[in-house]
Amino acid sequence: MKRFVSVLMVGMTVTVLMACHTRAHAQDLERVTESDPLAKQVLDYLMEGLKKVNDAPVKVEADTDKAVLLYNAGLDMGAAFLPHKGLSEESIQKSDKEVAPLGVLFLYHLAPAVDKKPVDKEKIRTISISVEGQDIHVPTYYMGVKTEAEGKRHLLVYGKDNKEPLLKVSLDDKATDGDRPVIIEAKNVGSGEGTLNVNVLKKFQAVVPLKGTS
Fold first, then answer.
1. Which of 69, 109, 150, 153 is 20 to 30 A from 189 via CA?
2. DSSP line for 141-180
């Protein structure tokens, strides 16, 4: 269990890398099978960490049953997304009044990019989880949707600051496929920079620029 968590959050071991079924030379992250019992244990750890957050910028009720986990063994990069249980097309339509909670994103060896540079580490929120006595600090990003006065929707990515997001990107109408309310796809990250495609309710998509981190 500890080794699997380490692969997704702090390191890599040969045994778990083989279990992740990723292609070593792929440039994208690949989805981890939800049926793997170790994946559920990782999500349980993340939920325990989220329970300690008492100053979230948006009120997210995270749904582990609808989570998406991504990893690439060769790149040693990963991501996880837990959607808000109350996410709906109606909640997005009402985001002209207040920010609609979308969910929580976790990144490993990746960070959102601003002006082609990873956001400052000092601005990133982390949650602490304990795995067999070892404290692990996981970069954590709350995400929400806001519709501006002119009707333009934006995806907001928050760090430590609860008022101003780290990043604001357009949330556009785009039909997508998926078996989850929110599907994340990390594309071309093997080059050291890439994108996180955030596909929402099969109807909307936002593209978040990413940079690799150490």
1. 153
2. EEEEEEE-TTS-EEEEEE-S-SSS-SEEEEEEE-----SS
Q: What is the pLDDT of residues 91-117, one digit of tens each?
A: 999 999 999 999 999 999 999 999 999
Q: How far is residue 155 CA from its own chain's centroid?
A: 13
CA angle 164, 168, 170 (to 5 degrees): 150
For residue 197, the surrounding DSSP H or E stretch is strand 193-200
What element of type H or E holds 104?
strand 100-108
Instruction: Encode pLDDT of 124-165 as tens digits.
Output: 999 998 888 888 899 999 999 999 988 899 999 999 998 999
Collapsing DSSP states into helix, strand and coil, what is residue 183?
Answer: strand
CA dist., res. 173 & res. 11, Å (int):
37
Alpha helices in the chain (DSSP H): 2-9, 14-19, 37-50, 89-93
